[in-house]
Amino acid sequence: MATKDQMSEEIEALAEELGLDVDVSEMTSRELVALLSDLKAKKKDKDRQTQADQPKKEEPFKESAAQYRVIAGKSITTRHHVVHQEDEKGGVIKAAWLGGGQRALDELVERGVVEKV
Asked: What is the pLDDT of residues 13-37, one digit of tens each?
């Protein structure tokens, strides 16, 4: 097992490499071992790329893909969000967002809440 001085030196080297500031002067041996283990794990994670590190790719909104739009003054609560004319997508609604799917969307068109574009 390494001495406290050896562990302190290794911790300080890893912390500097990771850009962290640590003070090991008043730590016990157990605390040093735990910190050293955590820093080694951080270093491994820093070297690895995971899916969580990559930003999500959002598909741009396509106006041409819109077939149905909520009419002005109306709003519909869907699985996706509350859809209304003033939202960021201009009131566009998709059948997949509704519990009843296409049948529910067709019913909304009949009732005059949604218009086919």
From this structure: 988 888 888 888 888 989 999 999 8
Query: How many structural domains compose the chain?
Result: 2
Q: Which residue has the tokens 């019913």?
A: 107
Q: What is the pLDDT of residue 47?
A: 67
Full-model pTM: 0.42
Alpha-carbon Rg for the chain in angstroms: 28
- The residue whose two tokens read 């730590």 is 27
Q: Has residue 74 been placed in a domain?
A: yes
What are the CA-CA distances from residue 73 to residues 12, 26, 58, 76, 87 (Å)? 63, 66, 29, 11, 12
